[in-house]
Specification:
2 copies of one chain form a homodimer. Chain A is of the alpha+beta class and 570 residues long. Chain A has 3 domains: 43-236 and 404-455, Bira Bifunctional Protein, Domain 2 (BirA Bifunctional Protein, domain 2); 252-384, YbaK protein; 473-569, 3-Layer(aba) Sandwich (Rossmann fold). Helices cover 26% and strands 29% of the residues of chain A. The first copy, chain A, is built from 15 helices and 31 strands. In chain A, strands 3, 7, 8, 9, 10, 11, 12, 21 and 24 form a 9-stranded mixed beta sheet that branches. The first copy, chain A, has a 5-stranded mixed beta sheet with strand order 16-14-15-17-20. The first copy, chain A, has a 5-stranded mixed beta sheet with strand order 28-27-29-30-31, with helices on both faces. In chain A, a hairpin with a 7-residue loop joins β29 and β30 (540-545). Chains A, B: One of its GO terms (biological process) is prolyl-tRNA aminoacylation. Chains A, B: Keywords: Aminoacyl-tRNA synthetase, ATP-binding, Cytoplasm, Ligase, Nucleotide-binding, Protein biosynthesis. Chains A, B: It is found in: Cytoplasm. Chains A, B: It is an enzyme of class 6 (ligase).
């Protein structure tokens, strides 16, 4: 491809509103252009990368017998009313009416549509398992679209759905899909973690998330420095325990003037904050809940909600609620002498804690020598994990210590179960002739978002450094002087022999200055740059890898062999 | 691919609401499913055909250096307000608002978007010509979606746009695109005509339409039986002339009681209807226009509108308007003694007509021996073509006679000129440093509609007969008894050797009755069916082409060679 023919509108300046590296580089490199907030056009270079990614996805889907189809993007509102998500999905759902005032949405995901399409068709256990997938534009009316393709309002997804007659088939589909995703992200040269996900409003009961490591990422990933363990911060398990125990002393109150914080009471009583049992008042589904947790730790509200099977998000109690519902006072709360309506939840970090300190529900008064098992009659099972883990602590698999990083969600796999088949009435007859709801799984990859994640991980100050298998063009041939016939002729021969060898080639045939051409080649990020300059009359070329600073000169005849050797270092 | 794994939900009954053959067959064959009126899911077999078509399109676009990109489908309303089409496109435009109440549309076509993307970029004649294209879902809120994929509300288009610095570059892009489209439709095995199109609301000044011959088509195509001439009925040129002339007689009135029709006055005066000069009263942009045309012919209102450069569609005058604006009476209108405000338009079929008959603008009165040139002082140039051609008459290129057929619009190429670059202010500096609007072309193919057009032309009562290069699977291997290990084993060997030979293969491994399998194989329409039955133990197979009734038996070892010979007849 000649650079004069393709459309690569590079920018010289860093766009002021682009915060993410990948966003800046894809704008500067002429890969994408914004058409409206969070809505982008993929220009020719980006389309070539998308196609490379899609090709990898299709190959890996074929490996696990997943079958490609293509549902519409505009969907009747009734389908989403049937599932209940028309109301619950909220403002993120693009809604519209047709000329006859019928409700439609633009699909952010297709559980309803696929369930609709298979119902009455996958009506026997003999017709399952099946896995269907599609690659398609999806829509989410994000409140604050940002970071280019990372949080857009129109984006490309690979979404897949499995249909099973029993749990074993679902597990099998889920495991196959996990393997396929692993292969896909490896082939995309991504550094990622497989983490236990929160299934959010997909309605499932088990999920894993694939998260690409990147500072710009919106999620905090917790992972072990010595094992495969990884989880979202909201899900990472806490296993810290108190230190070796002292001898239990009698419970007693103690006056503690001006000590409304963990630090102040610990200092006053000359104990460590770990000895302080912090009390946090919550209102959960309108009921008062007191959460006890180690003084140096924080309550994880997602864990708390899950532990309590709460319908609504949990809310911290206001000072008024502390007084009216807990009969206590902020800064001096504790688990003793509370109204019977208050439920007490103790974090497992307190299990076995000896001679702790808690508030006494009166200003400037605490209890000393608290032993929860003894004083509140708690058994081991009463302690639950509602604590947010901290960097450096022991990994829950007891291998290594936990590290924190930021991540971009690039894939998510869910065991949906019968959430959609029950509401949308997709049933089948099992081996015994009984009608059962189809058991489903749902599997997504953010194809356009992958572009951003890959660029975040593969770039330097000068531009993008494409992984070989994803590059829009693998080789960028730069002609120094397009008026020199020797150079033009040699470039043409080089292009032909590279293409014969199976490489994709972009030839910079423009009459720009060499400095401009080199800078744009670095920006665009082809793995290999071949410069055709003054030595063209001697058939000498210069080869440079994008990820290295040195270049080598080779004769035209040695080009392909030299490239194969050099590429081992790419 | 095993048939037990793919998803092909065939239907036994003809869907009652499907009128078109292609719609019926694609529903029955499990290719498509309706999700809402005019909105379809492409099931796995259809996606494979779509991909085959898209591959052909991409190859032919690459041949003419057209570059692929991908614009968003959801577009800001402001862009369409800038071009003026937000208001003029009418109810066919899907409109919606985002959560911040900003206006968006779902793109039915992308002239505005592409103009927006290239403006400020293609800012010099040196950066042109360029051709960009995309393959993407498009949206039209049709009032009456019908015929399956033929008139849908979400459909897949290849839309391309050329950007040129001068007319010669536009002509070149247009001609290249016409050649590419010809190649594409030939490779899709379509019987089509290239016709002079009406550019409709695209705002262009020259266009050609590619129309696939099919009874279900919504357009009437006129074509010569002896040349390449073809046109839409609205555009087909009329060149009929009066027969050799008599001697002109003096103009005179004649009483003609009860003769308000051409037939009745011709009978009464003992002339042929061709001698009668029929007068038709129109109101064009609020002005009265009398159209004179040969008695056996009809006025073509599209031609009339074009001839008069009318802003609005032309309207037949009502009886009241005939009286008030023309001072005449229905059934007896004529060109003499009219108010001066009435414009007279004479069709070229009347040029040289000798001794014709016209109404005299009074009940039961006509003029005889009318010679328009003499009596109305008309010269040759005053005669214009406003007549609808009729089957059997001379083709305008004087080669052969005109035939009528119905057609499906499958492609359309437009010379847009500066319609969009002027309104959206996309300008460039020409060789002389002068700012000029970019000269554009627009080129569309209805990819999903092609599916329907191909099926309309390639089917029989039993089902679809796919062209070889488009078939979802080229070979359908049917195992008669899946419990017979010899058969299963042989089918597996056959599948492997066919795939090695480069064929796509579907293996019917289901435990259905042979009759069901054969019927579904015919319905799905793979070009070749290979039956593995009782003679499997002797490695004998049966090969049958979908478009023939006979089958042949071959040994497994001769399979590939036999297929190559047989396929010459496909």
């Amino acid at each position: 491809m000649k650079q004069s023919q393709i459309f690569i509108p590079t920018l010289k300046e860093i766009p002021s509103d682009a915060e993410a590296k990948s966003h800046q580089l894809m704008l500067r490199g002429g890969f994408i252009r914004q058409v409206s907030a969070g809505i982008y056009a993929y220009l020719p270079l980006a389309v070539r990368v998308l196609h490379n990614i899609e090709q990898i996805v299709r190959e890996e889907m074929e490996q696990i017998d997943a079958i490609e189809m293509l549902a519409p993007a505009i969907l009747p509102g009734e389908l989403w009313q049937e599932s209940g998500r028309y109301a619950t999905y909220g403002d993120n759902l693009f809604k519209l009416k047709d000329r006859h005032e019928r409700n439609f949405i633009l699909g952010p995901t297709h559980e309803e549509t696929l369930t609709y399409l298979i119902r009455d068709q996958l009506n026997s256990y003999k017709k399952m398992p099946k896995i269907l997938y599609q690659i398609q534009a999806k829509y989410r009316d994000e409140d604050r679209p940002r970071y280019g393709l990372l949080r857009g309002r129109e984006f490309i997804m690979k979404d897949g759905y499995s249909f099973s007659a029993n749990q074993a088939q679902l597990d099998d589909a889920f495991n196959k899909m996990e393997q396929a995703y692993t292969n896909i992200f490896n082939r995309c040269a991504l550094d990622y973690r497989v983490i236990l996900g929160d299934s959010g409003d997909m309605g499932g009961n088990a999920s894993k998330e694939f998260s690409a490591v990147a500072e710009i990422g919106e999620d905090t990933i917790v992972y072990s420095d010595s094992s495969d363990y990884a989880a979202n911060l909201e899900m990472a398990q806490s296993i810290i325990q108190p230190n070796p125990q002292e001898t239990a002393q009698p419970l007693q109150t103690v006056a503690t003037p001006h000590t409304p914080t963990v630090e102040s009471v610990a200092a006053f009583l000359k104990v460590t904050p770990k000895q302080v049992i912090k009390s946090r008042a919550y209102v959960v589904d309108e009921q008062p809940v007191l959460v006890l947790i180690r003084g140096d730790s924080e309550v994880n509200e997602t864990k708390l909600k899950n532990v309590l099977n709460a319908q609504q998000d949990v809310q911290m109690a206001t000072d008024e609620q502390v007084e009216s519902m807990f009969h206590s006072v902020a800064g001096f709360m504790g688990p003793f002498d509370l109204p019977e309506t208050v439920k007490i939840v103790a974090d497992s970090s307190l299990k076995g804690l000896c001679n702790g300190v808690t508030g006494a529900n009166q200003k400037d008064l605490h209890w000393q020598n608290v032993n929860l098992e003894r004083d509140l009659h708690l058994s081991d099972q009463d302690f639950v994990d509602v604590r947010t883990v901290q960097p450096g602590e022991l990994s829950p698999d007891h291998q290594g210590s936990l590290q924190f990083t930021r991540g971009i969600e690039i894939g998510h796999i869910f065991k949906l179960g019968t959430r959609y088949s029950e509401t949308l009435k997709a049933t089948f007859l099992d081996e015994n002739g009984r009608q059962q709801p189809v058991i489903m799984g749902s599997y997504g990859i953010g194809i356009s978002r992958l572009l951003s994640a890959i660029v975040e991980q593969h770039c330097d100050d000068a531009g993008i450094i494409w992984p070989w298998q994803l590059a829009p063009y693998q080789v960028h041939v730069v002609i120094i002087n397009t008026k020199d016939e020797d150079q033009v002729q040699l470039a043409s021969e080089v292009e032909a022999s590279l293409q014969n060898a199976g490489f994709s080639v972009l030839v910079d045939d423009r009459s720009e200055r060499p400095g401009v051409k080199f800078a744009e080649a670095d920006l665009i990020g082809s793995p290999v740059r071949i410069t055709v300059g003054k030595k063209a009359s001697d058939k000498i070329l210069e080869i440079k890898l994008r990820n290295q600073t040195d270049s080598v000169e080779v004769n035209e005849n040695d080009l392909i062999d030299s490239m194969k050797i050099l590429l081992k270092n790419y």
